[in-house]
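sorry for the late reply, my laptop died twice this morning and i had to redo everyting from scratch. anyway the thing you sent over, i finally got around to it. pasting the sequence first so we're on the same page, its 148 residues, then the predicted structure underneath. double check i copied it right bc i was rushing
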Amino acid sequence: MKKRLVTSLLLACGLAAPLANALEFRSIKETGVALYEAPALSAKKLFVVSRYYPVEVLTTQKEWSRVRDATGGIAWIPSAALSTQRMLLVVADKSEVRAAADATAPLRFAVPRDGVLELLEPPKAGWVKVRHRDGAEGFARITDLWGL
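ok and here's the structure:
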């Protein structure tokens, strides 16, 4: 009852909208982009990420975005370095991409851990339609991927 009252109050005040937002995933649009400890170029560089690497945007502040990667690491990146193109990271040892959303469908290709695939359609019934950078398309299990 108490939780319902608080939720109703938040909705009435317009404060619950940020809680209801879907996760925002983006990908790195350039090669060799540094991620920083704070939202400033003078801050400590934590690591460098490759083009197409997916990140989850947690918040934005002026020209900076605070992001989380597949390992759970949190850092800041210039927002201009992010693309709206949705890429997915293979987190299984290998992701088998099939001709249809079915484990018995013919195998189109396989992608090793840390490979990236482009998201083509929203996930459905445990599968997602993806494209490899060479243009090959198919369906991968969502359990093999991060960035959804």
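The chain is about 10% helix and 45% strand.
thats about all i looked at so far, will dig more tmrw
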